[in-house]
Amino acid sequence: MDKLEMVDLTEKQKKTRRWRSIAIGLALAGLVVVFYVATLAKFGPAVLNRPF
Amino acid sequence: MALIDDRNIDDAPFRMSEATPGDYIALLKPRVMSLVVFTAVVGLVAAPGSMNPLLAIIAILAIAIGAGASGALNMWYDADIDKIMSRTASRPVPAGRVTPGEALGFGLVLSVLSVMTLGVLVNWLSASLLAFTIFFYAVIYTMWLKRWTPQNIVIGGAAGSFPPMIGWAAATGSISLESVILFLIIFLWTPPHFWALALFKSGDYERAGIPMMPNRAGHASTRRQIFAYALLLAPVGVAPWLLGYTTLFYGVVSLSLGLGFVWYAWKVLKMPDQDKAMAPAKSLFGFSLIYLFVIFAAYLGDRLIAHLTGLGA
């Protein structure tokens, strides 16, 4: 069976992909923080007032 | 043998991106974004009432991302003409570091994200204004007006004028005459600012086929129109004080700036046709940046002092 042909990334492609991945991760983390903070700011302690 | 086995991977239109996060940040036009953030902050802080500071920061962030998204959509559509002009040739799309499709996707995702964030977390009036601003800049200005009429930046300038109004709407949930005046200051400032640039960069715009005022109506007509807009801008800049919204401090600053703007525009009006260096146009362009920054900073300072001391105008 023939060996599966793969795309070999250059060092530059690997490096920029890594940087893009880190940037996407940071952006997503930032979005989580934004919505967490906004939830607290909008509802305050009332965020815990919910029926069980 | 299956067909797929006969195909070489090199035949596929495969392209691995070499774009850095910096290229994507460049798509957001950070310099334009900084102006948007600044004017939106002024609108938000100057508005009456109080807003939760965390929500205020989120509102400014959403407005900034929305403005950046419209910049990315602009770079997606304008890659062909950006490649021709010296000022824009090194942007990520014309330089080939980001594909047009990637820029389009990036712009669309950020547009939806910024508008929805502002709507859900702040209010839907400001979100609607932000959505309209993105649409106006990307579709009305970039796709339609820019390549069609020398009035492109006059009408398209509305997109850059909305941020203080969006900031105001984020804080109050409404639109008022004060926020409309802030809109008008940027709206009337835009034509003389860009036409001063277009005068000494007219060769670039001509090569790209963009119908800017100097290469359609001529330099003399552009100089007259710059002066006319300066005459309109100066009193509108002073209007917040004349209408009693600010203190004398703002009145003095805005009046001085307005007179300075008219003076620089007068020098442009008197610039000879054969003047190739165009120093007066370059001076006006530089002063126009100072004008906008200082007049909004003065408005912000005036309103902040009024808030902190509890004294209205």
TrEMBL record, chain A:
Protein name from the UniProt record: Protoheme IX farnesyltransferase
Keywords tagged on the record: Membrane, Transmembrane, Transmembrane helix
Keyword Transmembrane: yes
Transmembrane annotation, as ranges: 21-41
TrEMBL record, chain B:
Membrane topology category: Multi-pass membrane protein
Main subcellular localisation: membrane
Gene Ontology MF term list: protoheme IX farnesyltransferase activity
UniProt pathway annotation: Porphyrin-containing compound metabolism; heme O biosynthesis; heme O from protoheme: step 1/1
Membrane-spanning parts: 24-47, 54-77, 103-122, 129-145, 226-243, 249-269, 281-301
Single GO BP term: heme O biosynthetic process
Catalytic activity field: heme b + (2E,6E)-farnesyl diphosphate + H2O = Fe(II)-heme o + diphosphate
Assigned EC number: 2.5.1.141
Cellular localisation: Cell membrane
Pfam families (UniProt xref): UbiA
Record-linked InterPro entries: Protohaem_IX_farnesylTrfase (IPR006369), UbiA_prenyltransferase (IPR000537), UbiA_prenylTrfase_CS (IPR030470), UbiA_sf (IPR044878)
Domain of life: Bacteria
Family membership: Belongs to the UbiA prenyltransferase family. Protoheme IX farnesyltransferase subfamily.
Task of the protein: Converts heme B (protoheme IX) to heme O by substitution of the vinyl group on carbon 2 of heme B porphyrin ring with a hydroxyethyl farnesyl side group.
Name this polypeptide is given: Protoheme IX farnesyltransferase
Organism: Aquamicrobium defluvii
Lineage: Bacteria, Pseudomonadati, Pseudomonadota, Alphaproteobacteria, Hyphomicrobiales
